[in-house]
Amino acid sequence: MSAEDPLQQVHLFEPLDDAQLARMRESMREFHLAPGDTLFTQGDPARYFFLICVGSVKLFLLSREGEEKVIDVLHAGAMFAEAVMFMEHQSYPVSAGALSETRLLAFDNEAFLGLLRESPELTLQLLGTMSRRLHQMVREIDELSLHNANYRFITYLLQQERTGPDRVDLNVPKQVIASRLSMKPETLSRTLSKLREKGLIRVEGDTITFLDEPGMRRLLER
Amino acid sequence: MSAEDPLQQVHLFEPLDDAQLARMRESMREFHLAPGDTLFTQGDPARYFFLICVGSVKLFLLSREGEEKVIDVLHAGAMFAEAVMFMEHQSYPVSAGALSETRLLAFDNEAFLGLLRESPELTLQLLGTMSRRLHQMVREIDELSLHNANYRFITYLLQQERTGPDRVDLNVPKQVIASRLSMKPETLSRTLSKLREKGLIRVEGDTITFLDEPGMRRLLER
Prior knowledge:
The structure is a homodimer of 222-residue chains.
Chain A: H1 18-26, E1 29-33, E2 38-40, E3 48-54, E4 56-62, E5 68-75, E6 79-80, E7 95-98, E8 102-108, H2 109-118, H3 120-159, E9 167-169, H4 174-180, H5 185-197, E10 201-204, E11 207-210, H6 213-221
Antiparallel strand pairs in A: 1-8, 2-7, 3-6, 3-8, 4-5, 4-7, 9-11, 10-11
């Protein structure tokens, strides 16, 4: 595969060997959609899963009154509708339509399921790939939340009125601060510990001393 | 299963029926570790995957010099080492040790792989579960990033000097603001559009008019 091969973006294909990849490529179709075009409608038999090469796609449900509820908006690089292939009733549970000029690759469900049926080993490898991806994402979510919390808390600290050259007094209980900064009290505690461990602040009761204000500001720039 | 059944936290068990769950429960072991205890060492044959019930666990590698590099810290509710079961060489790629008093459930790899071998249908259901979880997490990461960006940008706007009663002028290019707020320029654009769509601000060139400042502040409290 070349570096720009869009099939490299499909995590389901990670454990495939060249012959298996070639089989998926044979059954592959390309779709071009204009803005507003429908790709499939809720209840349609699910024959393909998709990779967005260019453009963006909305997944939506229609209420009885015909009102549209958008479930998700997906952009280039995203794969969708692949979970349907593993379900008992293979029909699309939502509708999909293009939001802009969109180019999609469609992969045949039966071709992929055929590969899995022939090779239990491939199936296990795929379970491994997905397990590892799930762990990566849990970590990413964790880091994002913490990064977020760090940023908010440092900004808050630097905005407080000083009671000494490098000192602020938290006059409100920590859970009130946490709530004001939209984070859980545990997250605030972890943030405080991290800043202390890094030697950026000293905490004595309600008093916080800035040991390294430039260092705190540098954390905001990341 | 009762509402407090820890096995409900194991996403790998989601598609299991009662008989299959009972088999996993039979082969299950419980481990109690004190802080500093080692659970397994890199290279050990992988017999179990784990769920943390109480406490926390670090996953780490040892350098040749015996220095420890922590890969991950996991807390109660987290599952780990399950990806190893799907690999060709079933030995733990890292070491694991307890950071505090820890109670773990250990599930037998062979018992779980046995269930998958007997039932291709179960295997497909599991692939479905994992696909759906991956999509949820992609969405969660997206929302966290955007929430983050919203918070930062609104805070930034409200801190700017007013050039009219409800008006600020962005005197620096948008990519500079984005960089200062640690976000991608595209994310800043999406944030601006969202605030405009919600009727909170009006954007004319470099001038931003606050149409609903209390509404902006409410977004910060979420």
